[in-house]
Amino acid sequence: MEISQKDFCHRSIVSIDHVSFSYEHKKVIDQLRFDVLERDFVGVIGSNGAGKTTLLKMLVGLLKPTDGEIRLFDSPLSQFKDWERIGYVPQKNAFNPLFPATVREIVLSGMYSKKRIYRRLSKAELQKAEDAMLAMRIEDLADRKIGQLSGGQQQRAFLARAIVNNPELLILDEPTVGIDAETQIGFFRMIRHMHQHHHMTFIMVSHDMDMMQSYLGTEPQQVSGGIKFHVKHTHDPEDCRETNLTHSIGQIREMIGVQ
Ligand SMILES: Nc1ncnc2c1ncn2[C@@H]1O[C@H](COP(=O)(O)OP(=O)(O)OP(=O)(O)O)[C@@H](O)[C@H]1O
């Protein structure tokens, strides 16, 4: 069978098929269907308690759907093993000041998969961690204890951790909560750049309507229960040529424009 250009740059990244979820007897997600294609930017918007975080937790395997099926990169979630293809930044949790890990250790921990937790990292992998910290402009904080940093600095460390493997899919749950306005602008500029030039697909929960609508438009592609999905594709869906895979994580840094 001939593979068209459209198929090539529109692989299925996430497929959510009639998924429901209940906490004990409380149904939070009901028969949700949604597909995320390669190079989509999906903004997930909804009121408090609509089930956005629950949905993201199901996508990364932290919660199991009560019903329905989720596929990641065309594999059923239960069989999916390539977790390094996915970066995930959960909702912000302030770290206890006594938490012992340094920023570098946190970023390096993104490199370990479940089965390879004790292996030695190669020089190239160590360099990737330095690049990710540079990209997030936290290289000066590399040896500081994470618990001693501000909320925004901690969040940048977790973003560096999430991008260290150059993931194909980045899942972000309210990534700019607790970050000052100037840093937020730099952050959104950076993720737009990653979306347009680094061949990344995004799923992002945010309450920042201004940012979401300015990039993704005011009309949601889909409304399901209390959750709205706003979607933007990088380019004309028929055209794969805009992809520029020559950028490195280090170059993202140029785009941030914040101190
Ligand atoms: N562990 C849990 N046990 C029971 N109920 C829960 C649990 N976690 C969340 N819920 C409930 O499920 C619903 C959906 O929660 P969820 O965190 O997914 O919402 P959300 O859309 O992310 O909200 P927010 O915008 O406030 O972050 C809420 O009513 C919440 O109280």
UniProtKB/TrEMBL annotation:
Q: Does the keyword ATP-binding apply?
A: yes
Q: What is a single molecular function from GO for this protein?
A: ATP binding
Name the UniProt record assigns to this protein: ATP-binding cassette domain-containing protein
Protein source organism: Paenibacillus planticolens
InterPro entries listed in its UniProt record: AAA+_ATPase, ABC_transporter-like_ATP-bd, ABC_transporter-like_CS, Metal_Ion_Import_ABC, P-loop_NTPase
Q: Pfam families from the entry?
A: ABC_tran (PF00005)
Q: Where is the ABC transporter domain?
A: 14-249
| Entry superkingdom | Bacteria
